[in-house]
Design brief:
41% helix, 7 strands, 10 helices, Rossmann fold, alpha/beta, globular, seven-stranded parallel sheet, single chain, 293 residues
Length: 293
């Protein structure tokens, strides 16, 4: 997977493996595995630095994840409207291309930094750090990081955020927690989005979706939300946000922090899959060389 989707090297970390970068050279011949391990370690180091930035400025940082079209940006637009005058909000948007989502957020009067990831299917801590230089964290209470639409890779990388929020939309089907366990194990909160469609898409069973989540040994809250149908459809989400902002203020006063439920199997699977790709490539090279001797 990592050999084709571009998630091993991103615009944020490529300086580490290009030319005279810190990890441009490896020592044992297993270049793919060693480089990937080094990049994951560098990402975690940068995430720690990002979290220190957030904590020192009293910012609660949330990583929003979902498949494409689950309603992340629409949820943010409605959230900004609901919390206007109560919390100071900023957004970092991650997409392969375009500034469309960032422009929608800016239209609500909120700072939004767009990150174009190119071929990378997730954000990493280096990309987020670069974006932070374009924000005044002292003027922010709540930072949303809207990750690239993808139910696999974003769950495996710490960005420096405090919590992970995963959206599962009704049109996707209720079996997604079972099909994408790494993503849903990483969630500190699961939002069933587009819940207003439940009467129409009656083959979606919220109880079954939550049951799949619990089978992953997850105790993350599972809440239904909808943009349509009145402000009350967002109440569970808004209450959770207020509670987390208060908790962040308390942690800052106590000199502590919070870390998200990053799924530990994710980086291991990335390394395992990329290592197999590298071994396969080496085998093809050896076979090609033997045939032409």
């Amino acid at each position: 997977m990592c050999d084709t989707c571009g998630c091993n090297i991103t615009p944020g970390n490529e300086h580490l493996v290009r030319a005279n970068g810190k990890h441009a050279k490896t020592t044992d011949g297993r270049a793919a595995v060693e480089v990937l391990t080094s990049l994951l370690d560098e990402n975690d180091h940068q995430a720690l630095h990002n979290r220190e930035h957030f904590d020192s400025n009293g910012v609660l940082a949330l990583n929003l994840m979902s498949s494409p079209g689950a309603g992340k940006t629409s949820l943010l637009e409605a959230t900004i409207e609901a919390l206007q005058g109560e919390l100071r909000i900023a957004v970092i948007e991650g997409d392969l291309e375009t500034e469309n989502d960032a422009e929608r957020i800016r239209a609500k009067g909120v700072p939004a930094i767009q990150i174009a990831t190119g071929s990378a299917c997730h954000l990493d801590a280096h990309m987020v750090h670069d974006a932070l230089h374009r924000l005044d964290l002292a003027e922010i209470d709540l930072l949303f990081i809207e990750n690239v639409g993808n139910l696999v890779c974003p769950a495996s990388f710490d960005l420096g955020q405090h919590r992970n929020v995963t959206l599962l939309s009704v049109p996707e089907g209720d079996d997604k927690p079972a099909k994408y366990p790494v993503m849903f194990r990483a969630a500190d909160l699961v939002l069933l989005s587009k819940a207003d469609l439940l009467p129409v898409l009656d083959d979606f069973d919220p109880a079954r979706a939550e049951d799949y989540l619990r089978h992953l040994a997850s105790n993350a809250p599972f809440e239904q939300v909808a943009i349509r149908g009145g402000k009350g459809r967002l109440a569970p989400w808004l209450d959770w946000l207020r509670a987390e902002v208060t908790a962040q203020d308390q942690r800052r006063a106590a000199g502590t922090t919070a870390r998200p439920s990053v799924q530990p199997d994710g980086p291991r699977l990335h390394q395992h899959q990329h290592g197999h790709a590298a071994d396969a490539g080496a085998h093809r090279h050896r076979h090609h060389h033997h045939v032409h001797q």
